[in-house]
Amino acid sequence: MVSPSDPSMQPHDRPNIVALRGATTLDADTREQVLERTTELLAAVLERNALQSGDLISLIFTATDDIHSEFPAAAVRAAGISDVPMLCARELAIAGPSNIPLCIRVMAHVHTARARTQLRHPYLHDARQLRSDLPE
Q1: CA-based, 20 to 30 A from 117: which of 30, 103, 111, 133?
Q2: Residue 15 — pLDDT band, cuts 50, 70, 90?
Q3: Structural domain of residue 43, as residue ranges?
Q4: Of 77, 90, 116, 136, which is the active-site residue?
Q5: How distant, in Å, are the alpha carbons of 18, 30, 35, 102 from that of 58?
Q6: Does the annotation count 114 as an active-site position?
Q7: pLDDT (tens digit per residue) in 53-68
């Protein structure tokens, strides 16, 4: 496969750069749960969108205020993906139905040939309620 940054490629030959969203929840704030559920979330982002780790450009994770045991990015590093820029931040603590407890969210910037209408944004466990309008 030709790299998206290959200078021989014409602009119309390059894969799109898109942002994928997803979220998951924990049963408890433990390091093991953060690593397990974040790994599961990233795997779902890649699998549902026919992506490989080389398609990742960057990952932005947020976690609700009740998660303190580990950074979500640690799960990605433990999976052997060490060349993708990542950022972890706090989710806004807004009162309302979108503020569910023990929630990790991700925004993944990726290279893909898929159209936006073909993208699948995984919302796992209790995070499903956040975007029930999206196809699994």
Answers
A1: 103
A2: confident
A3: 14-127
A4: 77
A5: 11, 25, 18, 23
A6: no
A7: 999 999 999 999 999 9
